[in-house]
Amino acid sequence: MTKIKKVIFFSFISIFLSIWVSSCANYKLEKSLDSESQEFLSKTRYTITPEERKTFLQLPASERPKFIEDFWKRRDPYPETPINEFKEEYFRRIEEANRLFSEGGSPGWLSDRGRIWITLGPPDNRETYPRGQSLYGKPVEIWYYGFYPIVFIDQFWNGNYQLDPASAEQIALITQTQVNWNQPGGRIFQGSRAMDFEVNLKKTEEGKALLSISLPFNQIWFKAQNDRFETTIDLTVEIEDSAKQKVWSFHQAYPLSLTLEELKENFDKSYVVEQQVEIKGQSPFTLRVIVENKLENKKSEKRLKFEF
Fold first, then answer.
1. What was the pLDDT predicted at 170?
2. CA distance linking residue 232 with residue 144, whole number of Å
3. Whole-number pLDDT of residue 289
């Protein structure tokens, strides 16, 4: 064995042993926890981060209740209200998963379908094929999140639907899209999501300008309708002068309907709306743009001050 190969080999062994030792240590710590702490780690497995888990395991018993309290507070989308919407939605989905996916020999929330249901939420469209998609096929379920299909297969006809490995890529794409949406916890609490978009105002002549609003397709959530993916984007624009008097306004709905291939082609592109604007009054002006996806009733707003 060459010197370089020896270095690589022993480096690999060192890394493996450190991971193994760390895993064993964490396992021992978890087994030594009280029942309430074990229940917390078990039920939060789909939302707790590795760093949070490590910190929790190393805490003395007296500090764990405070950690649990802070854990849920950090995920509360509206801390000013008495209800923690994230926490309630999370446990509601666990109950749904147990009810919907009870077959297969394990609790529904621990199954592949339960995990996806809890972390991504109910699919926009769910297709079930209990006798397979062909004469000799196996039971299959296909869930659509927007235009992303997630496939589960019952390999042994025992009700245990397992995630098709090919769907892992789709889940990664969904997750990345959610990161782009800056939505804590994925789709677990949809009210926290805000679509991003760009606004550009270009003067064309005296008292007039061209307003351009660009909304990336990967920010738009579509619902599967037969062989198409549809939603409606609602656009509201208002301009106020320096005296806060409204000098121009605009409102229009834009229905979108695309095939799967069209969505794939446009995924990295933007849906652009252009509108001629008339501007009167004294500078500075305030431009207010509100974009709403009518499918989810979610609004995003931007304000821009400008001279004209």
1. 75
2. 18
3. 93
Which residue, among 204, 221, 210, has the nearest Cα to 271 in the 3D structure?
A: 221
Among 189, 218, 244, the domain-final residue is 189
Residue 84 counted as domain residue: no
Same-domain check for residues 223 and 291: yes
The CATH number of the domain holding residue 218 is 2.60.40.2550
> Does 82 fall in a domain?
no
* 1 assigned to some structural domain: no
Residues 6+ apart with CB under 8 A from 232: 253, 254, 255, 256, 293, 294, 295
Total domains present in the chain: 3
In contact, 75 and 84? CB cutoff 8 Å: yes
pTM of the model: 0.56
**Could you tell me if 234 and 285 lie in one domain?**
yes
Q: Residue 168: which pLDDT band, with cuts at 50, 70 and 90?
A: confident
Identify whether residues 175 and 198 lie together within a single domain.
Answer: no
In a 10 Å sphere around its CB, with 0-12 CB exposed, 13-18 middle and 19+ buried, how is residue 88 labelled? Answer: exposed
Indicate whether 208 and 148 sit together in one domain. Answer: no
Average pLDDT over residues 39-47: 93
Residue 185 structural domain: 102-189
In a domain, 3, yes or no: no
Q: 213: closest CA among 199, 201, 203?
A: 199
